[in-house]
Specification:
single chain, 378 residues, alpha/beta, Rossmann fold, 2 domains, 5-stranded parallel beta sheet, 39% helix
Length: 378
């Protein structure tokens, strides 16, 4: 399956290095290898920091000979990785293209060394989404994504037993391999417990104080641990959008997972899927066009809420409210449409054959989520 970032990455490799981050097992290595015809994990151009022989070669400053494109996977686990990569690029940039991949935020794990500013473009690879699967998404595509998630292996397999085993193994590797290799933490069992707690909090304001009590740790520790999971692309939080004239919440953040299939509650799972599609839209626009994109939510002091607001260069582009079934227009949309500068509201539901209705007075539209995904290319 050709991934949506393949062509932009191929184009950018002509002028700079490319950094490709994203969750473990989202398909980064497969995408990278697809840029080299006929290549697989045994190809000499593919060097992984998790392979001892590759570590020794890289630390000594060696690269495979005769390779136009070199893939460095998980090299950010090396303490001086930025100096290492900078040296490779400065010496070989006229003859070699460098693609750096990792299951963590490569912009976060800088680990000292010279800045690479101006030498690379950064991309974030997301799970499969409706429009990436087909430019004409159907309800069956949405049902499969909701059940098995958007990570390629369980989605393509579509088998419950395989999904359960894959989930257990992936979570274990995120904690046992990625987290321990990058962070100075010892409380592995507590972090495993935190990973189990987070799906229950999807779509809600994440209270670090409550999380601290459940984990029996200090507030700062609980907050740090959630930040670590964010840096490892396990979860993400979104900030509130607060127009100055509204009594909107300012500091609280809502939690979502990169793998929405972990959510047990159907409504939370659908909301998380929509959040992930919108975040992918924001990241793709930002990484390819350079616009400053942000995914937010809107909630005032009275508890009225709109699930998502997408901002482009600081200005609201549109808002999305999630409903599991087709219903009347949300009162919250009617309320905020009269009081904010948000130009467009979408109330999305699961029923692909359900209503698709315009509400001009409220700048709103009720429609199936598959329709919105098709129009916005989500």
């Amino acid at each position: 399956m050709k991934r949506y970032l393949t062509d932009p990455i191929r184009q950018d490799l002509q002028e700079k290095m490319v950094f490709l981050g994203g969750p473990r097992q989202v398909g980064k290595s497969t995408l990278a290898l697809s840029l080299i015809p006929g290549a697989d994990e045994t190809h000499p151009a593919y060097l992984s920091w998790d392979v001892p022989e590759h570590q020794m070669l890289l630390v000594k400053g060696g690269l495979p000979s005769g390779q136009r494109t070199v893939i460095l996977d998980e090299v950010h686990k090396y303490k001086r990785w930025r100096n290492l990569v900078k040296g490779f690029y400065d010496r070989h940039k006229s003859s070699t293209q460098f693609l750096i991949t990792g299951s963590a935020r490569l912009d976060h794990y800088r680990r000292g060394g010279d800045s690479l500013q101006g030498r690379y473009h950064y991309y974030r690879l997301h799970p499969l989404s409706l429009f990436e699967l087909t430019n004409d998404p159907q309800s069956s595509d949405l049902e499969t994504l909701l059940r098995f998630g958007g990570f390629p292996e369980p989605f393509l397999k579509q088998e419950s037993r395989h999904w359960r085993r894959w989930q257990r193994e992936r979570t274990s590797r995120v904690i046992q391999e990625d987290l321990i290799s990058l962070e100075s933490v010892r409380e592995v069992s507590q972090l495993q417990l935190l990973a189990q707690m987070l799906p229950e909090r999807v779509g809600s304001i994440l209270s670090i104080a409550n999380l601290r009590q459940d984990l029996s740790v200090a507030f700062e520790t609980a907050d740090k641990w959630v930040g670590i999971f964010e840096n490892l692309y396990y979860c993400f939080r979104i900030m509130p959008y607060g127009p100055p004239h509204l009594r909107a919440v300012k500091k609280e953040r809502k939690l979502y997972l990169w793998d929405w299939s972990l959510c047990q509650d159907d409504a939370a799972r659908f909301e998380n899927l929509v959040a992930s599609h919108l975040l992918k839209y924001c990241h793709f626009t930002e990484d390819t066009l350079g616009d400053d994109m942000s995914l937010r939510f809107l909630r005032d002091a009275a508890g009225r809420e709109i699930d998502f607001v997408v901002l482009r260069n600081g200005k609201p582009e549109f808002a999305v409210e999630c409903k599991t079934g087709a219903r009347a227009l949300s009162r919250n949309i009617v309320y905020f449409a009269q009081r904010t500068a948000i130009p467009r509201y979408y109330q999305v539901h699961l029923n692909a054959g359900g209503e698709d209705t315009e509400w001009a007075d409220s700048k709103a539209r009720i429609l199936p989520f598959v329709n919105l995904a098709k129009e916005l290319k989500l």
